[in-house]
Amino acid sequence: MSKQELEITAKAMVASGKGILAMDESTPTCKSRFEKLGIACTEENRQAYRDMLVTIDGLSEFIGAAILFDETIRQKSLNGTPFATCLSNAGIIPGIKVDKGAKDLAGHPAEKVTEGLDGLRDRLAEYKEMGARFTKWRAVITIAEGIPSRGCIEANAHGLARYAALAQEAGLVPIVEPEVLINGDHTIERSFEVTEETLHTVFDELVTQRVHLEGMILKPSMVISGLDCPQRAGVTEVAEHTVRCLLHTVPAAVLGVAFLSGGQTDEQATAHLNAMHNLGRDLPWTLTFSYARALQQRAMEIWRGKAANVTAAQKALYHRAKLNSAAARGSYSEAMEQEAA
């Protein structure tokens, strides 16, 4: 795929008012979420749940792309159509999570590094054959006393950049996801410092590895107070800190920034994105969403593994996607939360 084709795909993924549905939960993560709701985490239930997600009528009005997990891209819908094909037929670009998860970083207690580069070139070729048009790789950065270290930030940034270069070589748009975790009691100012250093390092590595910036999507965390911070920052403060951090670090060549929700409630994730669009700043990149729980949680709670609940669950997710689409244009309001799904 040429650079121009990568750019066309990246632009379509974050077209105006459209976000990315992250439905790439690993089997252990899916098991954890299912069990909290009394749903057995069988392959059949995982298939049925993902079928419910990809068969929502009209979802492409608000969702431009969807990230799949290895199991999911190999599965078919309940009517026998591969999930990647279902998404493409619905006007949603299918993609795939390709990292192997965050593992303990040797010599750096309490810090992680994402693995999965070994054999990645061959896996990318296989996923493209299955219909994937983009990829995702997540790195995690923890804020606590004495961390993150430079070693951790540099190791994860290097991994992200090497992955992105391999994805583009395979003709796939890479989503680059450096997540600064919300866990902890850190202030928003500390979150800003760490996020700024992380993003600077990531883009230094991306340039070093000759990644085509116009042919990638950045999926960062918002600059936000830790969950246990005694005085958590408000919506406008989060929006201001996040946009300022991006302006300090993200080259204008990048086409889109699609935020992860990272432990925020549905309403918080939507309100923060909306507020960024109402700061009156002239931004060089599209700002949108790439949420998992902040899009799916209510739908999963309604579904609970029962076929009879599919329609109601689909309406709930459609409604949440509609609200986030409005936020991506700066036209969301709290009153919209009360509308019927």
What would the keywords be for this entry?
two-stranded antiparallel sheet; 341 residues; TIM Barrel; alpha/beta
What is the topology?
Elements: H1 3-13, E1 19-22, H2 27-36, H3 43-54, E2 63-68, H4 70-73, H5 83-89, E3 93-97, E4 102-104, E5 112-114, H6 120-129, E6 134-141, H7 150-169, E7 173-180, H8 188-208, E8 217-218, H9 235-249, E9 256-259, H10 266-276, E10 286-291, H11 293-303, H12 310-327
Parallel strand pairs: 1-2, 1-10, 2-3, 3-6, 6-7, 7-8, 8-9, 9-10
Antiparallel strand pairs: 4-5
Question: Could you please describe the fold and organization of this structure?
Answer:
By secondary structure, this protein is of the alpha/beta class. It is built from 12 helices and 10 strands. Helix 9 (235-249) links the parallel strand 8 and strand 9. The chain has one domain (3-327): TIM Barrel (Alpha-Beta Barrel), CATH 3.20.20. The strands form 2 sheets. The chain has an 8-stranded parallel barrel with strand order 1-2-3-6-7-8-9-10, surrounded by 7 helices. Strands 4-5 form a two-stranded antiparallel sheet.
